[in-house]
Design the sequence.
């Protein structure tokens, strides 16, 4: 397939964004590509690829775009530098998440006394948390840079200083980053001012771009299934058993609470014996 197709796809993406709210539906992008291809003296589908699915065609352009597959629905497509567009649904509730293990690997700050660090296994597409001094086969495993408190604070500082944030609110957000419990204090202010959705989109973009940069550095192929529709994520309604150390479980619980909306928080029930323990402290 000639290099001109990259130009065709890039132009189609640009035009698609002009007429779409959020990411571009696959059917719409397909129409645009077919129309623009004629201008370049080409025809979609290209010769020899008549039976190829559109998603397979797009997979050749991972350096330009991101694809979100959805069960029973059309795919969504966004430019590689605007992953947050995949999370802007017509309902306004959002629909896109990183695969749980990938998200945790790039966001969980190791807090154990003997910190475990994340590694990616190329052949199995799995994340392994390993002790720092544990030897691993460099041909099979690739180091994932552990998240740090400084990194998390800088993401929040960038958000506070981003466009669309009122100066007074920005000052309040920046002030929380000087506190001992900076991440918790920041989340509190974000929710008080109704900025939870805006912060989610900002952070989603930051984390995805961080992963993309890691892929390029380590020569790891970006995988479409790292992005998933919320409806395709596992249902955690049933009790689950965590194999993580206690510190890791505390971290995940904190992330869980931070992600809940005010309405969802009101539905959370805590056993009475735990409430009594907290009141006695």
Sequence:
């Amino acid at each position: 397939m000639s290099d001109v197709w990259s130009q065709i796809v890039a132009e189609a993406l640009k035009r698609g964004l002009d007429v779409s709210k959020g990411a571009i539906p696959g059917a719409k992008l397909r129409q645009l590509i077919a129309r623009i291809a004629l201008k370049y003296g080409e025809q979609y589908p290209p010769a020899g690829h008549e039976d190829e699915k559109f998603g397979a065609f797009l997979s050749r352009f991972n350096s330009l775009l991101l694809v979100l597959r959805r069960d029973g629905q059309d795919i969504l497509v966004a430019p590689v530098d605007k992953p947050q567009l995949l999370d802007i649904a017509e309902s306004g509730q959002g629909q896109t998440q990183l695969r749980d293990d990938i998200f945790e690997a790039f966001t969980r700050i190791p807090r154990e006394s003997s910190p475990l660090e994340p590694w990616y296994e190329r052949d199995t597409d799995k994340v392994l948390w390993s002790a720092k001094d544990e030897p691993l086969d460099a041909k099979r495993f690739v180091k994932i840079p552990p998240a740090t408190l400084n990194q998390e604070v800088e993401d929040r500082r960038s958000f506070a200083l981003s466009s669309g944030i009122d100066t007074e609110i920005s000052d309040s957000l920046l002030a929380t980053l000087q506190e001992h419990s900076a991440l918790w204090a920041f989340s509190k202010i974000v929710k008080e001012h109704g900025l939870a959705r805006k912060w989610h989109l900002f952070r989603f973009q930051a984390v995805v771009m961080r992963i993309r940069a890691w892929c390029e550095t380590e020569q790891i192929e970006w995988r479409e299934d790292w992005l998933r529709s919320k409806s395709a994520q596992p249902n955690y309604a049933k009790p689950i058993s965590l194999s993580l150390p206690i510190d890791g479980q505390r971290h995940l619980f904190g992330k869980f609470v931070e992600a809940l909306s005010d309405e969802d928080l009101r539905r959370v029930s805590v056993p009475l014996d735990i409430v009594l323990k907290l009141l006695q402290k």
About this structure: Residues 196-218 form the longest helix (23 residues). The chain has a mean pLDDT of 84. The radius of gyration is 22 Å. Strands lie at 24-25, 65-70, 73-79, 96-98, 116-121, 126-131, 141-143, 227-229.
